[in-house]
Amino acid sequence: MTRSVEAVTKPTKAIVAGLLSALIAFGTSLTTALQGGSASFADLTDGQWLAAAVAALIAFGATGSVTYAVRNRPISV
After folding, report:
1. Exposed, middle or buried, 3 (CB in 10 Å: 0-12/13-18/19+)?
2. Is residue 10 assigned to a domain?
3. Is 76 part of any domain?
4. Which of 8, 35, 10, 25 is nearest to 62 (CA)?
5. What are the pLDDT digits (tens) for 6-23?
6. 28: which residues sit within 8 A by CB, 6+ positions away?
7. Is the pTM of this model over 0.85?
8. Mean pLDDT of 47-76
9. Could you tell me the CA-to-CA distances from 1 to 4, 11, 56 in Å, in that order?
10. What domain range includes position 26?
């Protein structure tokens, strides 16, 4: 039983896109929260950590689902 290339790569592509997007959103949120000369991770409030986590979850869900919904283009060799 063989599976098509699209069936194998489409979920993988969606997961990788979602993870990368979540990483960027999390990092951007933390960078924004750490703006200031003497700010460190110890200075972050629970709300700032929560905002970064929520941003990462939303980015993962949105990017992963949109990437999964878009059809792959056929590969022409």
Report:
1. exposed
2. yes
3. no
4. 25
5. 555 778 888 999 999 999
6. 55
7. no
8. 88
9. 10, 19, 37
10. 5-34+43-69
In a domain, 29, yes or no: yes
Give backbone dihedrals phi and psi of 40, rounded to 5 degrees, phi first. Answer: -140, 175
54 falls within a domain: yes
Q: Give me the helices (H) in the chain, please.
A: 5-33, 46-69
Q: Into how many domains does the chain fold? A: 1
Euclidean distance between CA atoms 33 and 14, whole angstroms:
28
Token look-up 């059809």 returns 71
Token pair for 49: 């950590």
- DSSP assigned state of 2: -
Q: How far apart are CA 8 and CA 50, in angstroms?
A: 34
> Which residues have C-beta within 8 Å of that of residue 6, sequence separation ≥ 6?
71, 72
